[in-house]
Structures are given as C-alpha cells and as structure tokens.
C-alpha cells in the first residue's frame, strides 16, 4: 500500500487525539469503507458536526487497485473507529463500483490481529449497508430462483446476484449474522439487513429521517452509548421499517460465544502445526468445520506447500481425514444443490475435497465436468459463475468438446480458471492462430498475458500470428504479451524480428520494437 495513504489516516487520527488537549472532549472517529454507493456516508457527513467527528475513509485511492492486502495495510495505521459504515453489494464479499473488494474471510482473518482492534473491536456502532449482511440461515419468503430474479431486476449483475444467492440459501458456512457478530465481538449495535437491502438512493430518505431524529445522540455519543448499550435502536429500526433491517451485537456482548474463534486458532503463530491439524480434525468430527471451510482449506494448502516437511504424526492426521467417510459425505452433499446459481459454491467445495485428499484428480475432473456442463454451449451466466470464484483448475483436455473453443464465453472462463496444462495452452494458441473472429483471436491472445508460456512450440505459434494476423489490434496485443513472456529462444526472437520488419502499422511497429528492446536487455 502507498505509504502516503496510511500516513494520511494516521495524521487524521492524531489530529482528533490532539484536540483532547484543547477542547473539553476529543473528536470521535467516523470511519467508512465505501465500496459502492456514497449516499450513506454523504448523509452522515451532512448531519454530524465536524466539531464532534473526524471522517476517515479507509478505502485507498483507485491508483492502488491490485493490492489484495489493502485492508490489512489499513489496519497497520491503528486508527480507532467509534462508528464504522460499510457500503457495498454483499454476498460473502463487499463489492461494487469500487475496484476494491472486502470479503468476510478477510474481515475474519484481521479480527485475529491486534493491529486491527481499532477498526473491528473499538466501534460502538457498525452499519453494514448491503444485502443479507445480517441474514440468518432461515428460509427467505422467496425461493432461490425468485430471489435471483429480484436481484437482477434491482440492477445487480448476474455474477453479483449468483454470489449473494449461493451464500444466502446453501448450507455452506455459518450465517452472516453470526459471522458479523464474531467479526465485531465488542460492538454494541451492529445494523444490517436480513434479506435484500435498499440501494443507496432508496435508503437515502430513510437514513435522512433517522439522522434528523438522532442528532443529539451523535452530538453526545459517549452518553448515548453508555445509556443504551446493546438495546435496540428504536429510532433506526423505525426509520428503516420498510426494509429488511436487522440489529444484533458483538458475540462477547451478547454472550453467544466467548471462546477463541476457530479461524484465529489455526492462524496463530504461537500454536504448533500438529496441534492445529488435530484441531481441524476435531472440527470436522463435530460438524463445525463447514462454518470456516475456506480458512481450513487455506491452512491445509499452506501445510502441504510448506518448505518444512510434514512429520509422521502430521501425515497421520491427513490420512485420518482422507479416510473419514462422514466428512466426505457432508461435503459431497453440497454438490447435490440444484441450479446454476450454485456453480461457484460447488466448485469451491470440490477444491476443498481435493485439498483434504478425499477425492482423486479423476473424480475432480468428472465432478467439475458435471458441475459446469462442458457438453453444452457456454452461456454468459456460466462464464460469470466461474469467474465469480477465486480458484484455478486444469480441465482435462479430453473433456473439452472442439466446439467450445469457438465460443467467447468459454475462452474467457478459461482466462479466469488459469489452467497450466500444456495441451490446453497449445489449443488456446491455435485459437489465436485460426479463429475466424478477430475479437475471439484477441481475447485468446490475452490469455497468455498472465499464462506466460515457456513452451517453445506455443511461443512459435504466437510469434507466427504476430507476423501474419490481418487484424492490427490482435498484432498489437501479441506484441504487448511477448513483452511479458520474454522468450529466450533465438528462433522465437528471430520470428519476432521478422514480424517487426513486415509490420506496416506504425503503432504496432513501435510496440514490437519496444518489446524486442525489453526482451534483449
């Protein structure tokens, strides 16, 4: 993260603290994480006095997009928030118009870190403006399909709606209400929605009415919070009564749980690896593992990939779990969920099964094929489903019908899956070489921007396309991609030089020259 951004946060916090030396009471910190609509934070700013409150936006500037650890870095500023507002679409992850995302998994992980106490433990009030942010696992009045249609009509993309429905209706994981209570364990009032939440524009008049009625509460915030504690906020609930509004409190305060969070236990550096593995085994045997399956999957993957070899005792724990039929059946049951809306969920479960050693690679390929249905034309919806989940996979080439390689949706889906199989990469290179549609050729070419193939045969196919493709946009893309590939074969470099000599478009020619200079450095 850019150091000036963190410094700005620290400075704003410091100014609020210094005011304690020159005023009767220090200014409070009103923190916001604005990932979608700005109406909510704008209303709070218009109603709350700048004499009483510092307003601190925690989302970095757009120039820092790409930093997946942005929230962890913000925590390092150790700002102390008295109120926190999070605005964004929500389906297990907060997202929206901003290019940044914030998942419950990230929030859970940071709740284990002392450096994030000021953001996750300090607030007296947390507002979660997003659908299902405090949803339970109870059935909604709508079926999953009906809920999906409502979300699409409300302006959500298919990908966004799918993610929301999958986590809301499946038996996968803990309820969002329980998760938020654990993430903000000491917060007296956590507000959110148990079903579809209002958009920024829709919530504006409701929130405006609330803030008008609650003006004195925020002007005398310490007295207000001391007096009301974890009691229901009648003013807020009444103002939001036309929505699916919900209120809860932190896990420690409502006494639902005072034990250490399971995901914090397996993340702790103070606990030896064998004890963590035995703990994970216990979670599975008691049926509690599904609630934190994504954290467990990361932990098991790290153990397997660690430079420190597993001990005999550690290997035995893995073996025990791999032979646990009850565990296997629990996970396999999630694969029986019907409907395309569950594709991201089911593929993630498949990867967990593989990580635990409960299924073979052959079964993975068979189940994946059944889940995404490679035999039928790839729809936009199916492509969005796969791209909504953060996983990679090598699809067995023999399972891919020839006609799929002529479909843009399938090519884009493969870009999301990031396969490394040489046969698949070779076939993708042939799409660049032979596809009739220049847009499809260009899209297939961009697959190699991140794949960066080392195979000389693939590089030669792409170099030949750079020299011969009739579309200058495709040639331009290939020149940029070779700058990333950085071939070392003099045969390939010679082909690239020939392509540069033949090039008639000035912009593409300059791009090829820059690429060759970069490669030869």
Describe the 3D structure:
The protein has 28 helices and nine strands. It has 521 residues and is an alpha/beta fold. The chain folds into three domains: 3-20 and 28-136 and 175-254, Rossmann fold (3-Layer(aba) Sandwich), CATH 3.40.50; 262-323, no CATH class; 421-521, Leucine-rich Repeat Variant, CATH 1.25.10.10. The strands form two sheets. Strands 2-1-3-7-8-9 form a six-stranded mixed β-sheet, sandwiched between helices. Strands 4-5-6 form a three-stranded antiparallel β-sheet. A hairpin with a 6-residue loop joins strand 5 (93-95) and strand 6. Helix 19 packs antiparallel against helix 20 (361-372) and helix 23 (422-434) packs parallel to helix 25 (456-468). The protein is globular and about 80 Å long. Mean pLDDT is 84; it is low at 17-23.
Task: Itemize the secondary structure elements and their pairings.
Elements: H1 3-18, E1 28-34, H2 39-47, E2 53-57, H3 70-75, E3 83-87, E4 89-90, E5 93-95, E6 102-103, H4 104-110, H5 117-120, E7 125-129, H6 144-153, H7 158-169, H8 176-183, E8 189-193, H9 200-213, H10 215-219, H11 221-228, H12 234-239, E9 245-248, H13 251-254, H14 262-267, H15 273-285, H16 293-305, H17 312-322, H18 325-334, H19 343-355, H20 361-372, H21 380-387, H22 408-417, H23 422-434, H24 438-451, H25 456-468, H26 472-485, H27 490-502, H28 506-520
Parallel strand pairs: 1-2, 1-3, 3-7, 7-8
Antiparallel strand pairs: 4-5, 5-6, 8-9
């Amino acid at each position: 993260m850019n150091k000036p951004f963190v410094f700005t946060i620290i400075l704003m916090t410091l100014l609020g603290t210094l005011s304690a030396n020159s005023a009767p009471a220090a200014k409070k910190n009103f923190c916001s994480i604005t990932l979608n609509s700005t109406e909510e934070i704008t209303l709070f700013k218009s109603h709350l006095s700048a004499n009483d409150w510092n307003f601190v936006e925690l989302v970095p500037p757009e120039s820092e997009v790409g930093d997946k650890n942005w929230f962890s870095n913000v925590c390092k500023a150790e700002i102390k928030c008295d109120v926190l507002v999070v605005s964004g679409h929500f389906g297990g992850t907060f997202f929206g118009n901003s290019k940044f995302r914030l998942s419950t998994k990230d929030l859970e992980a940071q709740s284990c870190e002392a450096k994030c106490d000021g953001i996750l433990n300090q607030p007296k009030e947390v507002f979660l403006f997003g659908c299902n942010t405090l949803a339970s696992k109870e059935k909604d009045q709508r079926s999953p399909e009906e809920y999906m249609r409502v979300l699409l009509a409300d302006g959500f993309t298919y990908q966004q709606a799918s993610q929301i429905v999958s986590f809301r209706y499946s038996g996968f994981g803990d309820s969002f209400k329980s998760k938020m209570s654990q993430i903000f364990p000491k917060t007296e009032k956590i507000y959110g929605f148990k079903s579809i939440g209002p958009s920024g524009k829709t919530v504006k008049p409701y929130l405006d009415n609330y803030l008008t009625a609650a003006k004195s509460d925020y002007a005398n915030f310490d007295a207000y919070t001391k007096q009301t504690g974890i009691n229901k906020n009648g003013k807020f609930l009444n103002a939001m009564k036309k929505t699916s509004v919900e209120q809860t409190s932190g896990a420690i305060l409502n006494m639902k749980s005072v034990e250490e969070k399971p995901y914090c236990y397996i993340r702790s550096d103070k606990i030896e690896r064998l004890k963590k593995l035995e703990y994970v085994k216990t979670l599975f045997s008691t049926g509690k593992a599904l609630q934190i399956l994504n954290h467990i999957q990361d932990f098991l993957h790290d153990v397997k990939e660690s430079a420190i070899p597993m001990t005999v005792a550690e290997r035995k724990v893995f073996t025990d779990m791999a032979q646990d039929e009850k565990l296997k059946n629990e996970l396999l049951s999630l694969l029986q969920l019907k409907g395309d809306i569950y594709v991201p969920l089911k593929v993630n479960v498949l990867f967990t099964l593989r990580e635990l050693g409960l299924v073979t690679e052959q079964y993975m390929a068979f189940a994946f094929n059944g889940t995404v249905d490679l035999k039928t034309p790839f729809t936009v919806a199916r492509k969005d489903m796969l791209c909504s989940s953060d996983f990679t996979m090598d699809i067995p080439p023999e399972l891919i019908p020839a006609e799929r390689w002529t479909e843009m949706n399938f090519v884009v889906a493969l870009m999301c899956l990031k396969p490394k199989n040489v046969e698949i990469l070779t076939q993708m290179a042939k799409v660049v070489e032979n596809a009739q549609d220049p847009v499809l050729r260009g899209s297939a070419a961009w697959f190699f921007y991140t794949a960066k193939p080392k195979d000389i045969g693939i590089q030669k196919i792409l170099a030949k396309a750079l020299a011969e493709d009739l579309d200058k946009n495709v040639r331009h893309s290939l020149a940029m991609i070779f700058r990333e590939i950085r071939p070392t074969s003099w045969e390939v470099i010679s082909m690239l030089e020939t392509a540069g000599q033949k090039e008639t478009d000035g912009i593409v020619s300059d791009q090829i020259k820059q690429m060759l200079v970069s490669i030869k450095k």
